[in-house]
Amino acid sequence: MGVFDNVDKFDIDSMTPEEHRERQAYVTSKCKCKGCPTYVEGDADIGYCFPLIGTSANIKWEKECICESCDIWKEYALGHTHYCTRCSEVCQVMKTQTNDAP
Ligand code: SF4
Ligand code: SF4
After folding, report:
1. Do residues 95 and 67 touch, judged by C-beta distance below 8 A?
2. Phi, psi (degrees; rounded to nearest 5) at 59
3. Fewer CB within a 10 Å sphere, N or C end of the chain?
4. Which residues are CB-neighbours of 21 under 8 A, at least 6 positions away?
5. Does residue 33 have its Cβ closer than 6 Å to ligand 2?
6. For residue 73, how far is its CA from the centre of ligand 1 (angstroms)?
7. What is the DSSP string of 9-63?
8. Rounded to the nearest 5°, which phi and psi values hold at 87?
9. Contact assessment for residue 12 and residue 20, using Cβ atoms and an 8 Å cutoff
10. pLDDT, tens only, 16-41
11. pLDDT tens digits, 49-87
12. Is the pLDDT of residue 48 over 90?
């Protein structure tokens, strides 16, 4: 097994641009961030766990993260939290695995 296996939880690599748009819309439609104590009103995009959405421009302070209670977190077997400030799932996995790599 390679160091970076199991990184692409959303299967982005095999998607067409249209499929990518549809998957992003699905993720943001299910996203619970707007009900989270950390969330700050005014962010244009949520679904921060999804690649390419990016971190929040408005959230500066981490409080509780409710991602682990989100259907998307469970459906895609995500493993991180605080995507709004720390970057997407794939980004955090890459950082962790790069730090752990021999
Ligand atoms: S896991 Fe977190 S960032 Fe991703 S859709 Fe759910 S609440 Fe939003
Ligand atoms: S990523 Fe986590 S901490 Fe950030 S707003 Fe969404 S649920 Fe809250």
Report:
1. no
2. -85, 120
3. C
4. none
5. yes
6. 6
7. TT-GGG--HHHHHHHHHHHHHH--GGGSTT--TT-S---TTSTTT---SS--S--
8. 95, 170
9. yes
10. 999 999 999 999 999 999 999 999 99
11. 999 899 999 999 999 999 999 999 999 999 999 999 999
12. yes
Residue with tokens 């971190």: 55
Which of 10, 39, 46 should be mutated for ligand 1, with most atoms under 8 A from CB?
Answer: 46
Q: Show the ligand 1 pocket: residues with CB < 6 angstroms.
A: 27, 30-33, 46-49, 67, 70, 72-73, 78, 83
Residue 97 has pLDDT above 90, yes or no: no
The pair of structure tokens assigned to 55 is: 């971190």
Break the chain into its structural domains and give their ranges.
12-100
